[in-house]
Glycosyl transferase family 1 domain-containing protein
Amino acid sequence: YRLGLFSKPIMGYLRKFHNRCAATMVPTEAMRVLLAERGFERLSVVGRGVDAQRFDPARRSEAMRASWGASPDDLVLGYVGRLAPEKNLGVVLAAYEAVKAVQPRARLVFVGDGPMRAELAARAPDAVFAGQRSGDDLAAHYAGLDLFLFASLTET
C-alpha cells in the first residue's frame, strides 16, 4: 500500500495482532509464505472456493448457447442466483436493455428460481429461464455466459 515510513510500525502491529489469534486465514500459498517470512504465525490457506477445473470458460458449450437462441458471436449476459427482490434484479434488466439497444441479438439467461420469476418473464419475455442448476451443469451454464451480472447490494 506504499505506506513509506509507516510500513514497519503497521506491519509490527498487524503481526502482533495476528500472532495472538488461534489462526490467520490467507487466500493463497504465496500469501502464506510472504507473511511467514515476515514473522506471522499459525497461517492457514483457505482457497477462494472456486473449482477452477470445473468452472472453466474452456468448457463453453455452443450447443447450450444455441438452446438459448444465441449464435457463437452473440453476446450472452447472465445472472445466477435466487430470483428475489433483494437481489436488485431491476438493475440486471436495465443492463440487459442497455446492451440490447446496441447489440440487438444479445441474450439474457437467468439461472435460478424464486418469487420474481413471473415478473421477470413478463418484463423480459425474450429472456431464458434455465431454472436451478448445480455441479457440472451449473458450471456449464456459467461457461456459456459472456458477461455475468450481479446487482445485489447485500448478500443474503
